[in-house]
Amino acid sequence: MNLKRISDYHKTLAIIELYPCLQGEGARRGHPSFAIRTTGCTHRCYFGEDGGWCDTWYSSIHADKGCFSFKDILKLVEKHPHIKEIMLTGGSPTMHPELLNEISHLAHSHKLFVTLETEGSHFIQTDHPFDLISLSPKLSNASPVLNTLTPKNKTVTESFIKQHHKYRLNYRAMREMMDYHKDYQLKFVCDNHPERLQEILMIIDELGALHDKVYLMPAGSTREEMVKQYPIIMDIALQHGFKFTGRDHIIAYDDKIGV
Ligand code: SF4
Question: pLDDT at residue 111 above 90?
Answer without folding.
Answer: yes
